[in-house]
Write a structure and sequence with these properties.
Length: 78
Amino acid sequence: MTNPYFDFSKSKLVKELGMSKQTLYKNFGDLEELGIVKVSRKIGRTLYKINMQHPLVKRLYDMVEQTSLKIAEQEHGR
């Protein structure tokens, strides 16, 4: 899930995360209910996108960005 702007299927998510289908299906509904993921389209199967407007998602991406900047600064300082 390297690009949050692309949509994905549940089966793709299982493959990318290396988790069991059962585990994903058990927990995915919670992500939908919380609004962290949302349906993007249906083409025989349902595709989802990460909801970039959700406050938790925004915070997570901010943390990733800050961590990346710190790592880049450390590597540049070597």
